[in-house]
Amino acid sequence: MYERKIPEDLDCGINVTMKVLSGKWKPCIIDSIHRGIRRPVELHAAIPAAAPRVINMQLRELEEFGIVTKKVYPDSVPLKVEYYLTPMGESVMPVVTAIDKWGTANKDYVVGVCRAMESVE
């Protein structure tokens, strides 16, 4: 098992939030589930830039933190699985919404910076 050389500082609220939301696609996954996208195949379609394996891994992590819950329909063939936000997941929605609003408001600037960085490389 991996042992951290520097202990995590989970006394800081920002670090706690980053611990739960870190992962490139977690805010997108949370937002998608909030908007009613429940099944893994639907999440894969809604976030095509993310590899299905990564989405599945991040769903498991979100489930471990109590942000999402998984409902399995054992009688369905093929097996049907759906994800829902828990009350803890709903409580993180203002953070996800703020990230979305900031990104939308600053999109043109950030895209310009990214293009300028690509042209230097």
From TrEMBL:
Single GO MF annotation: DNA binding
Gene3D superfamilies per record: Winged helix-like DNA-binding domain superfamily/Winged helix DNA-binding domain
Domain of life: Bacteria
Provenance organism: Chitinophaga barathri
Assigned keywords, A-Z: DNA-binding, Transcription, Transcription regulation
Protein name: Transcriptional regulator
PANTHER family membership: TRANSCRIPTIONAL REGULATOR (PTHR33204:SF29), TRANSCRIPTIONAL REGULATOR, MARR FAMILY (PTHR33204)
Signal peptide region: none
Domain HTH hxlR-type intervals: 12-111
PROSITE patterns: HTH_HXLR (PS51118)
Coiled-coil regions listed in the entry: none
InterPro entries linked: HTH_HxlR, WH-like_DNA-bd_sf, WH_DNA-bd_sf
